[in-house]
Amino acid sequence: MPNLVTVVYKLDDDPTAVEHAAQTIRAGGLVAFPTETVYGLGANATDADAVAKIYAAKQRALNDPLIVHCAPPDDDMAGPLNLRELIGNRAPFVLEELARQRIIGALSIAQRLRANALIGSFWPGPLTLVLPRGSRIPLNVTAGLDTVAVRMPAHPVALALIRRSGVPIAAPSANRFGHVSPTVARHVLDDLDGRIDVLLDGGPTPIGVESTVVDLTAYQPVILRPGGLGREDIERVIGKLGTLEQGSGGAGEHGAAQSSPGTLSKHYAPRAELRVASDTPHLLALHAECVARGLRPGLLVMAGQRDACAGLEPQFVLGKDLADAARNLYAGLRALDDDGVDVILVSAVEQAGIGEAIADRLRRGAAGRRD
């Protein structure tokens, strides 16, 4: 693809930045922007040619569908917390507007009831719903599937960009395909500088892992990709979720369409080999093994592991709890890659709440390897 000049806007410095980015979206260009999860790479979701540029810039497999990001139909853009209350009271109207814009297609009664309940509880936020595809969404957005993944982000910049663009925005994470997702603007430039038109620098993303993807077209709803919203929270609203075989990449492993973004068995991968230990003693044993083999290991550790790992450098501290670990995971993987380590070592986490998403990313980043 041609080499572009990527224009970077620091949102604190330029009040016209979002409008310039919206003009780029309307003109068929690519804009990287912050969401509450990670930075997304957006294009007009109704323009097949613009969407094709996302795949080219990311070097993304064409069988990996994109998520369509939408904004609320109401003019009240006071902020995500106020919007959460607004959407909670008007979830059926939001769903009707998605249908009116032909972003989604006809829903069954069960799909409508569940979607209303989840939208009313969690939008805007880190929840993506898989629903029947509307006729306005090109097939290259959905990798040829008759379903579409839709979410409403809980970030004021993302919402403002969608509203000012006047179109839904298709956006995967703003990184090279299969690599570690970006949580600050610098990560985006490291992967995509010269391959995209505009980058809106809105600082670090607050959650740090991608949205949870729930398929509502299945007989029993199922999480296709764990993310920033916990399974337990979703089940409190719509009941027990179905199960998806762990590590399943679906038919897409062999060239057919993926059921959801981020489900390939090898994904979210640093350049260095990633190995997941069962606990701190195992982490220390793996470190000693790597050193004995002449490799240079780096450590991702929780705050509670620092004393046990004192003197072992380089290391990156993820934080004190699972929310910290999710927020800092991708930054830690990138930092150790930048340090030139051969192997990145990390301990497994408890798979509760956002821990399920962290465990999923570690498993895929390690390509299924667990020592």
Structural overview:
Strand 2 (31-34) and strand 3 (39-44) form a beta hairpin. The two termini are 40 Å apart. The protein has helices at residues 17-26, 48-58, 80-89, 91-100, 109-122, 156-165, 185-192, 231-238, 280-292, 322-338, 355-365; strands at residues 7-10, 31-34, 39-44, 67-69, 127-132, 147-151, 169-170, 198-201, 212-215, 222-225, 273-277, 297-302, 315-319, 343-347. It contains eleven helices and 14 strands. The protein is globular, with a radius of gyration of 20 Å. It is of the alpha/beta class.
Percent of residues in beta strands?
15-25%
- The strand count comes to 14
- Count the DSSP helices: 11
Largest sheet: 10 strands, mixed
Rg value: 20 Å
What oligomeric state best describes the polypeptide chains here?
single chain
Shape annotation: globular
N-to-C span: 40 Å
Structural class: alpha/beta
How do the strands line up in the largest sheet? Answer: 1-8-2-3-7-4-6-5-9-10
Q: Mind sketching the topology for me?
A:
Layout: E1 7-10, H1 17-26, E2 31-34, E3 39-44, H2 48-58, E4 67-69, H3 80-89, H4 91-100, H5 109-122, E5 127-132, E6 147-151, H6 156-165, E7 169-170, H7 185-192, E8 198-201, E9 212-215, E10 222-225, H8 231-238, E11 273-277, H9 280-292, E12 297-302, E13 315-319, H10 322-338, E14 343-347, H11 355-365
Parallel strand pairs: 1-8, 2-8, 4-6, 5-9, 11-14, 12-13, 12-14
Antiparallel strand pairs: 2-3, 3-7, 4-7, 5-6, 9-10
Helix pairs in contact: 1-6, 3-5, 4-5
